[in-house]
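Lab notebook page, bench 4
Experiment: in silico fold of construct C2
Operator: M.H.
Input chain length: 177 residues
Purpose: comparison with the prior construct
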Amino acid sequence: TPPAPGQGAGGTAYGRGDWVAHVPMDGFHLADVQLERLGLRDRKGAPETFDAGGYLSLLQRFVSDEPRVLYAPGFERELEQPLAAAIAIPPSTRLLLTEGNYLLLPEGDWPAVRELLDAVWYVELGERERVRRLVDRHVAFGKSPREAASWVERTDEANSRLVAATRARADLVVNEW
């Protein structure tokens, strides 16, 4: 959930030495209205369904060290939609933690994103557990178990293969078996 007004990405009040912020890539999902327009609604979660240029732009603004609050979109799972300016990054932030599936992709805006990151860790999870967690997440946010399993098989698994192919580009591989 987004932080309360006047609070940083970690939910702490400004002015107390906020030096770390968390910005997940999920906020850069394209809204469903755009996915429909582009004919990509059934591919939601694939690389082309993210605003990679917007993500890159935010990272560029962060490393420029401008003395102002930066705002990043968050992702509201209950709505399954991005939320503009849901995350505030105060100027005192020195460490930006980010995460996302496509940080190591070799095409599009992703190589420029990678250049701005000091380190990228690849977290590897056993296939059975990964699939179970994906299905459970889809069910928790409104899909029937059958719809969730179908979505994982049809969409998430293709994305997973794409992400797995980037493993060798990571600075560190963390096995969560």
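Observations: The radius of gyration is 17 Å. The first strand starts at residue 20 and ends at 24.
Next step: discuss at group meeting.
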